[in-house]
Write a structure and sequence with these properties.
Helices cover 89% and strands 0% of the residues. The protein is an all-alpha fold and 116 residues long. It has a domain of 70 residues.
């Protein structure tokens, strides 16, 4: 789970860097491809965060089952911590990615309008 979120963050960083560095040098088709990848990352990272939430809650409920219903908060904390942390990380990656995706998409639309 952490590996997927880390890869998403790394991919996001690379794509944004490429978009900024080559925005004046590359044809619009190449920039649109990078913006498309940015959109994919923006849409997938919240789902990865949700997946982490589900796995964390499954872990917490398995702890409850293993204790035959005698709940010990310290044993449940690990699963709940995992659920909250992966949700937060997914949103931390997704929110700025969505902003950058829409920003670059607007710039590409403006460039298309100038070319016509």
């Amino acid at each position: 789970m952490w590996l997927l979120l880390g890869c998403s963050l790394l991919s996001l960083t690379i794509i944004i860097e490429r978009l900024i560095r080559f925005s004046q040098k590359k044809p619009i088709a190449e920039l649109e491809k990078n913006v498309y990848l940015l959109g994919i990352i923006a849409h997938v990272t919240p789902l990865l965060g949700l997946l982490g939430t589900v796995t964390g809650m499954i872990r917490a409920f398995r702890q409850i089952e293993g204790l035959s219903g005698r709940v010990n908060a310290s044993l449940l904390a690990g699963g709940i911590w995992e659920a909250l942390l992966t949700t937060a990380f997914g949103l931390v990656v997704a929110i700025p990615t969505f902003v950058m995706y829409h920003y670059f998409n607007q710039k590409l639309d403006e460039a298309d309008a100038v070319e016509i």
